[in-house]
Amino acid sequence: MIGFEHMKRISRGSTSKIVFLVMDGVGGLPHPETGKTELESARKPNLDRIARDSLCGLTDPISPGITPGSAPGHLALFGYDPVLYDVGRGIVEALGIDLDLKPGDIAARGNFCTVDDKGIITDRRAGRLSTEKNAELCRLLSDIALQGTGISVVPVKEHRFVLILRGEGLSPDLTDSDPQQIGLAPRKVQALSEHAEQTAGIANEFVSEASNRLRNQSSANMVLLRGFSHRPAIPSIPEIYKLKPAAIAAYPMYRGLARLIGMDVLPTGENIRDQVETLRRHYDDYDFFFVHYKQTDSRGEDGDFGAKVKAIENLDNALDGLLSLDPEVLIVAGDHSTPATLAMHSWHPVPFMLRARWCRHDAVSEFSERACLAGGLGRFPATDIMPLAMANALKLDKFGA
Amino acid sequence: MIGFEHMKRISRGSTSKIVFLVMDGVGGLPHPETGKTELESARKPNLDRIARDSLCGLTDPISPGITPGSAPGHLALFGYDPVLYDVGRGIVEALGIDLDLKPGDIAARGNFCTVDDKGIITDRRAGRLSTEKNAELCRLLSDIALQGTGISVVPVKEHRFVLILRGEGLSPDLTDSDPQQIGLAPRKVQALSEHAEQTAGIANEFVSEASNRLRNQSSANMVLLRGFSHRPAIPSIPEIYKLKPAAIAAYPMYRGLARLIGMDVLPTGENIRDQVETLRRHYDDYDFFFVHYKQTDSRGEDGDFGAKVKAIENLDNALDGLLSLDPEVLIVAGDHSTPATLAMHSWHPVPFMLRARWCRHDAVSEFSERACLAGGLGRFPATDIMPLAMANALKLDKFGA
Known about the structure:
Two copies of one chain form a homodimer.
Chain A: H1 4-10, E1 18-23, H2 38-41, H3 45-52, E2 55-60, H4 70-77, H5 89-96, E3 106-115, E4 121-123, H6 131-141, E5 150-155, E6 160-166, H7 197-214, E7 222-229, H8 237-241, E8 245-249, H9 252-260, E9 264-265, H10 272-281, E10 288-293, H11 295-301, H12 305-318, H13 320-323, E11 329-333, E12 350-356, H14 369-373, E13 378-381, H15 385-392
Parallel strand pairs in A: 1-10, 1-11, 2-13, 8-9, 8-10
Antiparallel strand pairs in A: 2-12, 3-4, 3-6, 3-7, 5-6, 11-12
Helix pairs in contact in A: 5-9, 11-12
C-alpha cells in the first residue's frame, strides 16, 4: 500500500459502484469428522458463482499469526494499517451506541460481572443480564460524583456498558481493571504514564463507588473496565479515496466504526435480507457500500459448526437481490477467521474474492479457504484490498510520470 | 529488498552476465471472444522455451492495485523503491530528449494549447500541432528574459516541450499551471514552500510573456506547465550493485532514465533485431544489459489486441541471437501491464521469468499471466528482481556472519 498521501493524490471520483460485503469471521478450519471447513460444507451456489467470475486470494488482516480484534480487522479491510491506527475498545463500544464523543473524552468498555464474597470474579457477564436490567443499573451509577470529572454510564446490550469520563487533562494511558478471566479479583486501574496518574485515581474511585452501589444486587454486583481510550485522529474514507460511502450493518460496533471513518450509516433491519433491501433502496445515493454480515462470526464464536454453515447458506440465499444490481466491483471478504472448532477469532488467513469487469480471472471455482489459496491474488495483506477495489472501479490515476 | 546500503556491502564484481529484457506493458487481459490474453494468443516458441528453463512469477511494480507510470515502473525493476525515488514529470521529459541537466536546474513538461478569447482552454494539445511548428514556437519563446534566470524551451513531439530554468536558488516546489482539463483557465503557478516563492514568480512571468508572444497564433496561443522537478539524487547501478551496465533502448525516455541511474546508453536502431545486434556487439564490454522493447506497450495503448500479439511474436522471432549468447542470467520482465482491452497502463501484475544455472525451476512451461501465477516466485514486488538477478549471477556475498 502506497500510503494515504499518495492515495489521495491519485484517487478520483467516478460513477462506478463498489459493494464490499464483509462476512465477519468467515474463515474456518476443517471439521474433524468430515475434513471440510464451514465454507466447504455449505451449499452456497451464489458465492461459488461469484468465485468463478472473480479474482480470488487469502488475506492476512494484520500479519501472519496475528489474530485481529473486530476493530483492527475492519480497519485493515478499509486500507488503514491496523498497527498504526489503534482504535481503543472503549471508543469502539461508544461509537457502537451512537455516543457523541468530544475530543479529550475517555471511553472505557464496561461489563457488569459477579464477584463472590471474597471479591473473586465468578461470572464476567453477570449471567448475561437483560438489557433492561442493565439500563436500570446504569442509571444507578450515573450520578457518581468524581472530583469535577463528568461521567456517563451508558447501557449497551446484556452485560455491557460504556463509561465516559469528561474533563480537563484526562489521559487514556491506563491498564484494564478487567483481568479477562474468572477466578481472579478485578485489578486496580494503573497509570501507564505519569500524565495518567490522576485519571487512574478517578477510574478507581468510580469502580469503588460502583461496587458500593451494586453491593446488594444478586448477580451484577461489580463492574469491570477495559480499553480506556480517546477518539483517534484518523483520515476519512471520503478524504482518502474520494468515495461517497455508506455502511449497512445491523450491529452497533460496526456502525460506529464506519461512522468514525466517514461513512454514512444507513438505518437497516436485523437480517441480511433487510440489509440487501437497504442497499437496493440507496443504490443511487452512494458509490461505496460496506455491507456487514455478523452471523458467521457469532456462530463461529459459539463453537457451533453447523450453525455457522447455516449462516453461510442464509447469506448465500439473500444474495440474489445484491447480484442483480451488478456493481462494477463486488468484493466478498472477512475481517478475520472464526473457526467453529476454535470458537474464537483466529489468525488464519481469510478467503477473499473480487469480481469486476477488469479483474484478471483465475481458475478458482469455489469460495473456500483451500480454493482461494490457488487464486490470482495469492496470499496478501488486507490493506491491499482498497487499492484493488479502486483500481478495478477505474477510480485511480496512474502513479508517477 | 534489504536496502541499498546492505546491497552495496554484499555485491561484488564478477565476469558473469545479466541480460534484462523488459517487454514494456507486456501483461494483458483476456480477449472477450477467445478468453485468451495477448501472451496466451501469441505464437512464441522462444519465450515459452525460456519459461520451461526458468523460475517464473508475477511482479507487482509498485503495490497491488497501483498503476505505474513508465518511470516508477522501470525504477522498481532496477530495485529502486518507486515511492521513495520520485522522478518528476519534467525530469522524465527532459531525460527523454537527451537534455544535459545540471544539479539545481528545474525542468517542467510543457504543452502548447489553445485558449479562447476569455482565456479558457479549449484544446490542451493545440490540435496536436506538427513537431516542426512546435520547434518554430519554441524558438519564439527561447529568448524570453527572466530576472537573471536562464531558460531553455526545447521541443519534444507534437504539442510537447520541455522548459528548463537555470539559476541560483530555484526550487521545484511548485503547483502546475496545467489544470489537465478543458473548460478552465490555466492556473497561476503557486509556491508550495516559502523557498519557492521566487521561482513561482519566474514561472508565472514566463507564462505571461509566452502568452504575449503566442497571441497571434491560430491554435497554439498559450502554454501549460506541469511537473516542475529537479534531477533527483539517486544512487547509481554501478554504485549499488558494482555492475557495469549498458542500456539498449530505442525510445528516448528509457535511454534518459537509464542514464539517470548510471547506465551507459548504447546507440542502437529502431527495432528489436537492431537492439539484439547491439547487444551482441557490446557483449564483452559490460556485465549488465537492459534491453527495452517498447512495441508491446505501444500496441496495448493503441487498444490493438492483434497488433500487440504481433509485437510479442516479433520479439520472440528476434530472440535467437540473444539466446545464443547464453548469458548466466536472463530475465524477461515488464514494467507494468498494458491490456489492449483497456488501452492504457494498468495495475495487473506482470509475468516474469528468470533463467539461470542456479535457479530452482518450477513447472511453468509457457510465458503468460496464468502460467506464471503457478511459478516458483509467486506474486512478488518488482524491487526483488535485482537481488534475484545478482544472486543467480553469483554476484552477492552472504548477508551477516
